[in-house]
Design brief:
By secondary structure, this protein is an alpha+beta fold. Helices cover 35% and strands 28% of the residues.
Length: 303
């Protein structure tokens, strides 16, 4: 639940000073992140408010503070009471996927009159009638990307999913990659049958990489990189192209460093990047084919 610049008929203390009616006052969420593969764990959750009037209302139990955790992909929303005493909050990762938002609010628990200090001149020395559940403080908080750990064995299986479609023409394949956990490659039933035969033979796997996987990944990466060059952040990319998280991990394994926005902006050839991420399969494919040819020639000579 994002408040952002929403207007209220009474003064609001907003973490974003642009939308706050309090002068140089803060409303902060504090916690330590110690997540595991199975759980999202927030340790020592608490808040800090330096507005005297609101702190007095909290002490009088007229105002409460809550943390709202939301995940649009799973339609999950949970609310947790937050106090000056640090607490731990745990959420199963099965309830989360993609972008998770954390928002902090101070709200009225009862009806009361309110004449806060340290507000801007539009609200100074005015008494307001506050009703139960009215929001007094807003911190639109932070966002975090939560992706389930992929249990499949290979990078290829963590990025691609290949299916047959009866309406696809033989010899053609289609690629879908947006708003998906994997890049989905669709081909005809006939081609899919042949694919299963070829992919089961190690000597031809890299050939398949070069024929289908590299063009598919290159096409998908081109759009991702264009989004970045148009202002998208990495979190946005992972939300829109969930398979990109596997690309980030593979890049770090290969390079020993993070794939950053600046690095992406300097990538001129997505197809070259795709080949590198997939282990430069053309080199391996050619070497295996040459080795196989030599063995066949050797066997022929021996016969």
């Amino acid at each position: 639940m994002q408040i952002r610049g929403k207007l209220f008929p009474y003064p609001i203390l907003n973490k974003n000073e642009v939308f706050s009616n309090f002068i140089k006052k803060s409303f902060d969420l504090k916690f330590d992140n110690a997540s595991t593969d199975d759980k999202l764990i927030l340790h020592n959750v608490t808040y800090v408010i330096d507005a005297t009037a609101i702190n007095e209302l909290i002490k009088e139990e007229k105002v409460g503070v809550v943390l709202v955790v939301e995940c649009a992909d799973t339609i999950m929303r949970k609310t947790f009471d937050v106090t000056n005493t640090k607490v731990d909050i745990t959420i199963s990762n099965q309830e989360l996927n993609g972008k998770v938002e954390f928002s902090l609010f101070a709200y009225a628990k009862v009806n009361f009159e309110y004449c806060p200090s340290d507000v801007d001149e539009d609200y100074n020395n005015i008494t307001f009638q506050i009703e139960k559940y009215d929001i007094l403080c807003v911190n639109d908080g932070i966002s975090k990307i939560v992706l389930h750990k992929d249990t499949e064995e290979s990078l290829v299986k963590s990025i691609f999913s290949i299916q047959s479609l009866s309406e696809m023409a033989d010899g053609l394949f289609n690629v879908q990659y947006k708003n998906s956990k994997k890049i989905l490659i669709s081909m005809s039933e006939y081609d899919h049958t042949n694919y299963n035969v070829v992919y089961s033979m190690p000597i031809f796997q890299e050939v398949f990489f070069n024929m289908i996987l590299i063009p598919a990944l290159s096409q998908a990466l081109t759009e991702c990189f264009n989004d970045v060059k148009n202002g998208a952040e990495l979190d946005d990319i992972i939300v829109n192209y969930q398979w990109f998280a596997a690309i980030l991990k593979q890049y770090k394994r290969l390079k020993g460093e993070q794939l950053t926005i600046d690095v992406i902006k300097n990538i001129q050839q997505p197809i070259a990047f795709a080949q590198e991420i997939l282990g430069k399969p053309i080199k391996s494919a050619l070497e295996k084919l040459i080795e196989s040819t030599k063995k066949q020639n050797q066997n022929a000579e021996e016969e």
